[in-house]
Amino acid sequence: MKKIVIADATLRSGVAVSDGVLGFKEKIGIVRQLERLCVDVIETAPLRNGKSDILFLHSASSLVSGVLACPANLTEEAVRASWDAVKGAAHPRLNLLAPVSTVQMEYLVHQKPPAVLEAIGNLTRLAKSLGAELEVSLLDATRAEKDFLVKAAAAAAEGGADILTVCDTAGTMFPSEFAAFISDLKKEVPRLEKLTLSVECSDALHMATACAAACLELGVTQFKTAIGAPEMLSLNDFADLLRLKGRALGAQTNLNITALNRYTDPVAEMLQGRQTPAGASGQLDTPSRDEDFQLSQNDDMESVAAAVRRLGYELSADDLSRVFEEVRRIAHKKKEIGAKDLDAIVATVAIQAPPVYRLKSFVITSGNIINAMAHVTLEKGGEEVLGFSMGDGPVDAAFRSIENILGRHFELDDFKISAVTEGQEAVGSSVVRLRSNGKLYSGKGVSTDIIGAAIRGYVNALNKICYDEEEKE
User: Assign residue 245 a region: left if phi > 0, alpha if psi is -120 to 50, beta otherwise?
Assistant: First the structure.
């Protein structure tokens, strides 16, 4: 099974960059939604508004665990400025936008083909000298002169590009034609075998998904998508393709397909102007889970299973059966069960995993004039393993310490803590939701210390991940 990279360009799409559509908070909201969906690459718009765009990129860098890509036009100034703005991300990428059709060269960069070809080579080498992971996008490639297109692709490859994206900007090709076009380019430029080959399919003929499927069969491994952008391959449509035909095509993805509509619908509605951008809070978050649904003792297994899926979980038949029985038991007393209740039930009864890791001790140091620091000791196989980290608050520092022990990162999908009892000695209960390989795992922790409850919830979820991964091996 080949790994398919989804590079989402919602923030670069024509709808998103129209004047007045997206403000700072709306763009941050979209970044959060895409991060929750586990897209591999989040691509922004090119720098246009100076300091405000740079501020947005710096803010987005702290939110994105995957690749954050910033496009750059075909000038040295744009390459340097774009790389400076994005290089602080966990995995920064520069996307050099190179028009290769005659009309786009004259319209976008006002240069003749020889000058454009020279610029591609020079700027590719410059970007690599700056330390950038580099993508070169050949804009309007399907209308380019064949000889020039081959030279442009070769110049990008020789300059050290890591990814080459072929853009069917005009959208005039049928799937079979586009597949033949890509196949011919690969034959003409053998160096492309050493690069990640990427495509940006137009939906002008409503065939972007079919074009993507044809390219999948050719070995293309990165696809540009967008939400609510009629000119591009739809993220939802491409996800449906992978869900229904991924196994047959030998393709797999990190995308959280089960929660797709939950996160893409608010973005699409905002871009289409059907709701106030980002709402009062300035974030494109979904409604409160308690308002999403209510379960009662009269609900059947199918209704409970649907509610579990709405929370983003993929449970086995046995785990689902245990969740259903617990819902029925609690519903006799509580009458109605909301999303928070169901979250806690899943955390408590689903995937009962043997403890690979046990919490031995933790020390937290925090204050208003120092960064929070955490020292966590876990036990694994009778041996103690230690982790130390700083973080943005005591809980973040504690979770980072555990990641330091593991040597790997899990996306924190959600974290809740509430009081079980009252008074100064109240017992706290936490639910921690971690995502691994696109799948959600939740753990519950209880302690008289809220930090202790959070750490125990994290370790509980971690043990479920370890158990599930061992079962699959």
Answer: alpha
Q: Which of 306, 356, 352, 347 is nearest to 431 (CA)?
A: 347
- What is the end-to-end Cα distance of the chain in Å, rounded? 16
- For residues 125 and 153, the answer to whether their CB atoms sit within 8 Å is no
pTM: 0.61
- How many whole angstroms separate alpha carbon 379 and alpha carbon 387? 11
Same domain, 89 and 132: yes
Total domains in the fold of the chain = 3
Q: Say how far apart CA 208 and CA 201 lie, in whole Å.
A: 5
- C-alpha angle 369/373/379, rounded to 5°? 165
- For residue 238, which of 457, 449, 40 has the smallest C-alpha distance? 40
- Whether 338 and 374 share a structural domain: no
For residue 376, give both structure tokens: 């966590």
Facing residues of 295 across strands?
337
In a domain, 227, yes or no: yes
Co-location of 117 and 252 in the same domain: yes
428-439 pLDDT per residue, tens:
678 888 888 778
Q: Are 20 and 54 in contact (CB under 8 A)?
A: no
Task: Give the pLDDT confidence of 74-131 residue by residue, as tens digits.
Answer: 999 999 999 999 999 999 999 999 999 998 998 888 899 999 999 999 999 999 999 9
